[in-house]
Amino acid sequence: MFGFLSKRDSERNLEKILSEISSVRSFLEEQLQQMQRQERRRQTALESILDSQNRTLDVLARLERHEPLDALMALAENFALTFLSEPENAASQVLFGKLTDLLDCFDLSLIMDVNEAFDPERHEACDVRGDRSKQENSVIEIVRPGFLRGGHVLRCATVIVNRYDAASGDASEEL
Asked: The domain 67-162 belongs to what CATH superfamily?
C-alpha cells in the first residue's frame, strides 16, 4: 500500500504527524497546567472557607459557654446592686456609666426597672410587698438584675413587686 510513496514523502508525512502530535501534546500540557492552577485555586478557596467556618465555630462555641459573658454579667450584677443602694453617689454614677458602655460592647444591657410595671417577660417575682405610696403591680426593688442581649431576655430580673393586698409577703400566684 505504501509502495507508491517515496521515502521522502514518508519522511515528510512522519514529520507532519510528529509535529501534530507535538502540538497536541503541547495543547494537552497547557490544558493540564490550566486545570492544575484551577484546582489549586479551588483548594485555596475551600481551605479559606473551611478556615472561616472553623473560626466561626470556635467563636460560637465560646459564646455558647458564655464564660467571658458570665464573668462580665457577675461583675455587672454585683456593681448594679451596689449602685442601686447608693444611686446618688457621683463616683458610682460615673462607674455605672462606664459599665453600661462596656456591656454595650457585648450587646448586653441590664434590666433594672425600679418603679416600672411588672412584666413577666422581663421580671421574676420573688416577693410582694404592700406600699400604698407606689403604684400597684410595679417593681419596687431589684433583688437580682436581669440581662438583655440583642433585645432578647438572657436572664429575667428577680424583683419584689408592689401589691396592695399583700398580706403574707409571699409572691403572688398571679405574678
From this structure: Head domain of nucleotide exchange factor GrpE (2.30.22.10)
